[in-house]
Structures are given as structure tokens and as C-alpha cells.
Amino acid sequence: MKFIEIKNCYKVYPNGVTAIADLNLSINKGDFVFVIGHSGSGKSSLIKMLYREEKPTKGEVIVGGVNISKLKNRNVYKLRRKLGIVFQDFKLLPKLTVYENVAFALEAMGLKNNEIKPKVIKALERVGLKEKIRSFPNQLSGGEQQRVCIARAIVNEPKLLICDEPTGNLDPETSKEIMKVIETINKEMETTIIMATHDREIVNRMKKRVVVIENGVLVGDHLKGSYKANESV
Asked: CB under 8 Å to 129, separation ≥6 — which residues?
């Protein structure tokens, strides 16, 4: 079942740079997709269009049956409540505990404490951090901080998890641990995963679908793909 459809998409920035050119892509519900490409290839623009940080100049971006390219700015928050987003930099609130960082988004949505607590505990259990619930970000390793970010992203059990270079600041061993967590979420929660990455080792080891962007154009789409098949990237 198609969950994401990108149809004849262009993204041209005000300075005249074309980041995406006539891109067409379909992603099924529950898929795990790596998006790879050089810096400046357009992959970040593609990722940003999926959570409406950017709008296409032309074309359609459809997520879960909703054409989000036509979504009014005042309604973007409704889309983001249904998504999970994990960034390279952790974006944790330093004065809040692990529990409070994960609970924050649910509080903003107006959920009550008795609704929030079980969701937060479950999310922290999924990422293996239940014992760190009262810790502050500066008491955690980089890998643990990223696990908190993942817990925060999945606390509302989104159908789509967007990961933008989530292992970019981590060492190889910690990166492996983070990818195990993300793969488990994909399998157990049946969450669609879209991950932009430069990490060849991860892509080659995991053998997931690999979408290759070059100069804003889709130049490769491989099931159980690898970086090896795209050495120029």
C-alpha cells in the first residue's frame, strides 16, 4: 500500500538553485528506505518536504493520503503530530530530565498526565533507557542522548519516522546500536522509516531499499541496495 507519493516534484530556491528536479517516488507503508547522495545533492530538501519544512515549487508530496504540499501553514502542526523526526544534533532541552524531554511533545498536545506517563515509559523501554528516566542530557552519552531523541519521536506511535543523519555525530559502535533500535521500531511498530545518511557501513550492512539522489534527480532506487553499487556517491 502506497504511504508516500512524490509526484513530478521540483524545488527551486529563491537564489535560483534547483534542489529537486522532476522527482517521482513511491514508498509503501512499513518500508525502510535510505536516501543517499553527496552534500548538496538534494536529499535534505527531499527530507524537509516530507515534514513540510519546505514546500515543493511544483508537484505533489502526498503522505498518508494527504497532499501536504497544499497544506496551509497554520495546519502544519497537525501533520507533524503524526510524524516522528530524529536529527543529527540531539535538540534535547538541557534543563529537563529524560522523562520530561520525551513528555514535552505530549504536554504540548494537551494530553493529561495519566495519559502521558504510560506512553513515555513505553517509548523509553523501546529504546532501552527506562533506567535513565530521571537523568539530565549532560549525564548521558551521545548514544543515550540520541535514544532519548528517538523515544521522543516515537512517543505518539507515528506511522512515519524521518531520520536526518541520526548517526552523524556518533562513533561506529554506537551507530550500530542506534540502527538496531530504529530497525526494531520498523519491525515491531510497523513504522515507515525514511533515513538520510552518509554512512556507507550502515547502508551496506543493513541491505534495505536505497534511493540515490544526484543534482536533485533520482538516479538510483535499489531494493536491498548498498553504497557499493553507487561508488560515486
From this structure: 98, 144, 147, 148, 151
| Per-residue pLDDT tens digits for 157-177 | 999 999 999 998 899 999 999
Q: Are 191 and 4 contacting, i.e. CB atoms less than 8 angstroms apart?
A: no
What is the length of the chain?
233
On whether the CB atoms of residues 216 and 21 are closer than 8 A, the answer is yes
- The Cα-based distances of 133 to 80, 81, 84, 150 in angstroms read 25, 23, 20, 14
Contact between residue 193 and residue 185 where contact means Cβ atoms under 8 Å apart: yes
Predicted TM-score of the model (pTM): 0.92
Type of residue at 152 = R
Sorted by sequence, the CB contacts under 8 Å of residue 60 that are 6+ apart come out as 5, 6, 7, 8, 9, 67, 69, 70
The strand order across the sheet containing 160-164 reads 83-86, 160-164, 192-196, 32-36, 209-214, 217-222
Q: How many CB atoms lie within 10 A of CB 54?
A: 19
Calculated CA dihedral for residues 17, 19, 23, 29, nearest 10 degrees: -150
pLDDT (tens digit per residue) in 102-129: 999 899 889 998 999 999 999 999 999 9
- Whole-number Å distance between alpha carbons of 113 and 185: 25
